Amino acid sequence: MAEKPHLNLVFIGHVDHGKSTAVGRLLADSGAIEPYLIEKYKKLAEETGKATFEFAWVMDSLKEERERGVTIDVSHKRFNTDKYYFTIIDAPGHRDFVKNMITGTSQADAAVLVVSAIEGPQAQTKEHIFLARTLGVTQVIVAINKIDATKPAYDQKRFEEVKDEVTKLLKGVGYKMEKVQIIPLSAYKGDNAVKPSTNLPWYKGPTLLQSLDQLEVPPQATNLPLRLPVQDVYTITGIGTVPVGRVECGILKPDMKVIFMPSNKIGEVKSIEMHHEQMLMAKPGDNVGFNVRGLAKNDIKRGDVAGPVDNPPMVAKTFTAQIMVLNHPSVITVGYTPVFHCHTAQVACTFIELLKKMDPKTGQVKEENPQFLKAGDAAIVKIQPTKPLVIEKAKDFPQLGRFAIRDMGQTVAAGMCIDVERREMT
User: Fold this and answer.
1) What is the mean pLDDT of residues 133-140?
2) Among candidates 214, 147, 230, which has minimal Cα distance to 183?
3) Which of 5, 74, 83, 369 is least surrounded, with the fewest CB atoms within 10 Å of its CB?
4) Domain range holding 252?
5) Do both 243 and 384 map to the same domain?
6) Do 40 and 119 touch, CB atoms closer than 8 A?
7) Distance between CA atoms of 351 and 415, rounded to whole angstroms?
8) DSSP β-ladder status, 402-407 and 410-422
9) Could you tell me the CA-to-CA distances from 255 to 252, 267, 290, 308 in Å, in that order?
């Protein structure tokens, strides 16, 4: 049987708006999880004073998450619809856990934004919408959850109010609303998750499950030159040097000559393996190990990116980026040097110019050459890596143009690269 097209789907939204429960309900009602497991979780949840959390526990397997009732790490589950097979990435909504949410969202092809019908959009809802946009998630489905708990229950008027608020936020960061489905949902009761609900006679649109089949598979970036960020390098006896990583774009084949940047080392691909099986080629999304002739283990390292010799990955002397400052205890000024997480690289980089402050809602320039940036600001900045870093323009190589900025144990900002000044490699 031919594989269905694959999509990575992330669930985002404010803490306690029901993301994990929505995922659990989808998996349960579409038959991806055995019903007895839900029963088991239900008993456990009641015993620990967390009644109504049984669906969330499908995803929240960490003990600490169950005790706190929040999602901490990114978890992955696979399930099928009529048209696609999905890897669901359940990302944390709680603000302490934003870095995991960035990791999850930067791998996603589409997002389901869960918003409580009771509270409407909250601070995190806004932050997640902006991050999704900044990290290049172009397709969004909005689930207005807890519709069973409005007063009166299943209230169309409340649905329309929240829908209007969310629409404003999405339009504000540049989403095209004709492409966005907005769906009333009760993840806990199951209304409109997989089956249409008689409790929502006023709603004529798709269920959450049906709306997933209306998503589009992003074009696979096979037409671009190869870019493969290295996660690890091994030496395997009898084989030799084996870098491991995920093909972000292009195709990796045996007998190819590849160059690793910024290490500036060339080797020839002898063989490629995935899940211990030899492969004739590796495509975008494949996590592979490949044996390289002509290189020793210490010639290359995590954070290097492999590409074709005639189109090497771009090493930046400086780069210009559009960033969104998420949380910073004080202000960001010229000279600030936090750590940039870009593909598998983690490199300290210095802010050398603050070019423009933007209005995140309209994208208009608010201020030229601002003195400082603070939490909530969107800006265009010029950055200088403290050591060689591969980064590409997001419009040429979206997978290698996005990054998160971390400092003091938290994500300070997220952004994408809009221009690169190439560093001459000797």
Assistant:
1) 78
2) 147
3) 369
4) 228-308
5) no
6) no
7) 13
8) antiparallel
9) 9, 10, 11, 12
